[in-house]
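User: Could you write out the 3D structure of this protein bound to S-adenosylmethionine? I've included everything you need below.
Assistant: Certainly. Input first, then the structure.
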Amino acid sequence: MLSVLRLGHRVRRDKRITTHCALTSRAFGVDEMVFTGDKDESIIKSVRDVVKRWGGNFRISYSKKWKDVLFSKRNQDYKIVHLTMYGVQLLDVIPKIRKEKNLLVVVGGEKVPPEIFKEADYNVSVGLQPHSEVAALAVFFHEYFKGKELTRDFNNKKFEKGIKILPQEKGKKVIKNSF
Ligand code: SAM
C-alpha cells in the first residue's frame, strides 16, 4: 500500500496545489492521500469526482492531526518517507525504499514541523533545490515504479464506465461510457 500525507493545507491559498498533490499521487500509482490543516470538503469532492470519471480506487480523506495519521500508519507496518530538500538523495536511497512493503510519503506545506524529520524512517530529497510538493511526489513515484506507472490502466481490464484516452499523434481521442 502506498499512502501520501499532505501537511498543512490552507483553504484560502492551497486549493489547487493540494488538489494537484492528490491527482498526481493518483496518476502515479498511489492508493490514497490524507491531508491535514484546514478541512476542505471541496477538494475531497473534486478528487472523488475525478476517480469516478477516470477510474481506479484512489481514496482521499482529511485528518485533523498529522500525528494520528503517521502513528496509525506506523502501527500498520508502514515506513515513513518524508520528502524534503534537506534529505538524502533520492537515487541513493530508492533501491532500499522499493523493498519496503507499505509507505507513507509525507509532503509539507508552508512550514514542516521539526518532529517530522525525526519521525521519518527516510528523509529524502528530490534534488537539493526548493521546488514543489507536486513535483517531489511525481519524481519520487516515477523513480519508485521505474516508469511503469505511466502505462497503468485505471479502468481495469473490463472498461465499463467513465473516460479513457486513446493516445494520438495529433488531436484528442476519448472513449466515454455512460454511467
Ligand atoms: N518551507 C517548507 C519547509 O519548511 O520545509 C518547504 C516548503 S515546499 C514549497 C513544500 C514541500 O515540497 C516540502 O515540504 C517538501 O515536501 C516538498 N519539496 C520541495 N522541494 C523539495 C525537494 N527538493 N526535495 C523533496 N521535497 C521537496
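The helical segments are 15-27, 41-54, 66-75, 90-98, 114-119, 133-144.
User: Perfect, thank you.
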